Amino acid sequence: MTGEEPAPAQPPPEFNPLRYPPCACPRHSPGPGLEPDKDDAEDSALLRELRTRMNEENRLRRRARGQS
Which region ranges are annotated with the description Disordered (predicted)? Predict the structure, then answer.
């Protein structure tokens, strides 16, 4: 209305994967049947021990609920 032309439309910003990291939910993460990554092979002994303990606790919880 003042005689000015509207600014030209700008293209959408370029996709940046660092702003949108991959989803870590079970639906989008790789399943248990896939080969482990190199990072998994380099895990510390403490991390392996914690994972083993978590798996055991989860197994015991399933058994307590009646799911084997």
Answer: 1-44
Q: Which pLDDT tens digit goes with each residue over 26-41?
A: 776 766 655 555 555 5
Q: How many CB atoms lie within 10 A of CB 40?
A: 11
Are residues 8 and 2 in contact, defined by beta-carbon separation less than 8 angstroms? no
Provide the H-helix boundaries in the chain: 38-41, 45-64
Measured distance CA(40)–CA(48) in Å, rounded: 9
Q: What is the pTM of this model?
A: 0.36
